[in-house]
C-alpha cells in the first residue's frame, strides 16, 4: 500500500484538489466510500460505535478501549480490502506515552498515518486543563502526530478552537480538521448550536491563521450543522477550505435513509394491490373519466353510491368537508367527462355572499326580471344547479326550496302557473357532520328540517382524505401533475416522511395536499423530503379541525390501516407500544 497521503499530497493532480475524507466504522462503508471517490479513510472508534447503533458521542464513554477497537476493525476490514490510504485513530490516554513507539506500530501495521481520535478537544475546557496537567492534553496529541510524520507517514489533527489549530500549525501537521461538534441530522443527530454562516466565519478565521503559520497545511471541516452537500456548498461560498471529513454524514445518515427507504419500497411492493373484482375494476375505470383517483375501500364505496345516483335526475345533498375537491363528483352527477367545459352548470355560492337573501331572487325569480331571465330553477339552459353553503339561505327560502324540490314545481313571482324544475339540483354543504348523526349535525349547522328531509335517501357523503389514506400517494401524484405539471413518486419522500404523511389527519384534505406540494416541489436539490421538513408545512392537529373524530377513532383507523399490528400502529401514531396498549384498554378495544 501507498505509505500514505504524502505522495498524493505532493502529486500535481492533488495539489489543488478538494480532498474528501471518510471517518467510517466498517468495511462495507469503506468500500462504498472508495467507490464514491473518497481520498482517504479514518478508522476511529466513533465510526465503529455508529455501526453498533450508538451515536458518535458514545466514543467518549469508557465502554471499549478505543485503541484496540479501532485497530482491529481497521486491520481486518479496511486495510485488507481498500486501496486508498487509511489513517488510524490514536489517543494519548494509555498507561505510558511513547509517541515514537506508537508511530512505529502504525507504520508496521500498514496504515498511511494517524489521527488524534478520540481527542480531549471533545471535553469541556476544565477537563482539558486537567488532562493537560496530567500530561495527556492536546499538546501531547500534537506531539504524537508529529512523531507519526517523523516516521514518514501523514497525519490529520482534529481541533475545536483557534488555539488548538495554532498548536498543530506550529508543529507543521500535514492536515488540520476543524471539528464543529457532533453532527446534526438523522435519528441520532444532535441539535445545531451554530448556523452555517457562523461556521463559515470561524472557518475563515482559523483557516487564515493556519495558512499564515504553515502554508502547506491542508485545512478541513467536519461535523456540526453541515449535514448535506448543499450545506457544505454554502460554507465553501463563504470560506476557503481544502477538504471535508464526513463521519455521520457519510455513514449513519445515508444508512438510516437508504435502508429505511429500501425496506419501505419492498414493503410497498409486497403489499400487492388486492385484485379488484370485475365490478370494482369497471367502477374505477368509470370514475377516471370524471377526474377521480384512488381505489381504497372507502373510495370504492363512495363511487358505488355515486354511480347509482349519477344516472338519475333527483336532487342530491353532497356533504363535503372543507378542502375536498368536489369537481369530479359534480362532473359525474352532471354526466360531464373530465376537462369538458361547464357550459350548463350554474354555481350559486352562498359562502362568501354578504346578502344570501338575494339568492331567493336568483333561484325563484323576481317580479321585475322574470320576463327577461327565467329563474335558475326553471332555466332550460342549465343542466346542473349547484348551491354551495345552503345553510346560509334564510329559513323561509330553505322551506320554499324544500317544497319545490319535493313537488317538482314552483310558482315564480308574477306568474299564475307553476313552473317545473328543469336542472338537476345539488346542494353542497361543508358543515361538520358526525358519522351516524348526520341529520342532527345538519340541523345544528343551520339547515331547516324540511330541506334535510327533502334529500332523504339522496344524501351523498364525500369521504375525507383520512378515510381513504391508502389513496394518499395517488392523490399526491395526481395533484402534483395537475397543479404543478411535475411528476412526484414515493421516492420524493423518505420513509419516515411517508409514515408521517400517512399518520397525519389531513383536516384540510386536498387543499392541504396542494399547499404542501406547492411548498415542497420548488425546493432545491435531489435529496428526498425529510421528516423534519413536514412539521412546519402540515396543519397542526392541535388546531381547529372540521371533524368530530376522537382519539378512539384515530386509534381504530390506524389499527385498521396497519392490519392491527400494534407495533406499527404505535409508530405511526407517535406513541410507545405501552401507551398504545393502555389506550386500547381504556377505550375497550381489546375485546
Automatic annotation (TrEMBL):
This is Sigma-54 factor interaction domain-containing protein. One of its GO terms (molecular function) is catalytic activity. Residues 292-522 form the Sigma-54 factor interaction domain. The lineage of its organism: Bacteria, Pseudomonadati, Pseudomonadota, Alphaproteobacteria, Rhodospirillales. Transmembrane segments: none annotated. Gene3D superfamilies: Aldolase class I, Homeodomain-like, P-loop containing nucleotide triphosphate hydrolases. One of its GO terms (biological process) is phosphorelay signal transduction system. It comes from Pelagibius litoralis. Keywords: Two-component regulatory system.
